[in-house]
Amino acid sequence: MKKYLSVLTLAAMLAAPAAVMAAGKNLLSAHILNQQTGKPAQNVEVTLEQKQGGGWKMLNTATTDADGRIKALYPEQTPVAGDYRVVFKTAKYFADQKQESFFPEIPVEFRISSTEEHYHIPLLLSQYGYSTYRGS
User: Fold this and answer.
1) Who contacts 32 (Cβ-Cβ below 8 Å, separation ≥6)?
2) Burial of residue 126, with CB atoms counted within 10 A of its CB: 0-12 exposed, 13-18 middle, 19 or more buried
3) Helix, strand, or coil here: 55?
4) pTM more than 0.90
5) Distance between CA atoms of 81 and 71, rounded to whole angstroms?
């Protein structure tokens, strides 16, 4: 009986890190890189909204870290497939850099079709242009 319990205890201990990792992974992340400087865009507010009917419902707001990243943008709730948008609030970022910018904010609409996948929205940013794509 002791041997059986030891095997079960060992199995539980080995499975625990995988369960913690799966539970800790957020559905959505974002990253901003300033193309002009080649450096991450730090302290940029980013909002997440979900399309509902003819409008948008705010789900979360976060700020990019020193590496220009938001590792967990989806709120702590059960993910739902649907249409979403992230809005990168870039006006303050450029004002803090003492630069003008043509785009005070950059909305990026996208669709979450599978809540079992991870979605990453990178933004390559400059004062007068930007590009984005689905990252990994």
Assistant:
1) 40, 41, 44, 64, 68, 88, 122, 123, 125
2) middle
3) strand
4) no
5) 19
56-86 pLDDT tens trace: 999 999 999 999 999 999 999 999 999 999 9
Contact predicate 103/130, CB 8 Å: yes
DSSP string, 32-47: EEETTTTEE--S-EEE
What does the chain come to in residues?
A: 136
pLDDT at res. 124: 98
Task: Please say whether the beta carbons of 37 and 67 come within 8 A.
Answer: no
Of the CA atoms within 13 Å of residue 54, those in its CB half-sphere come to 0
Contact 59, 74 (CB under 8 A): yes
Q: How many CA atoms lie within 13 A of 74 on its CB side?
A: 20
Which tens digits make up the pLDDT trace of 87-100? 999 999 999 999 99
Delineate the domains of the chain, giving CATH numbers in brackets.
26-132 (2.60.40.180)
Mean pLDDT, the chain, integer: 87
Structure-token pair, residue 74: 């989806």
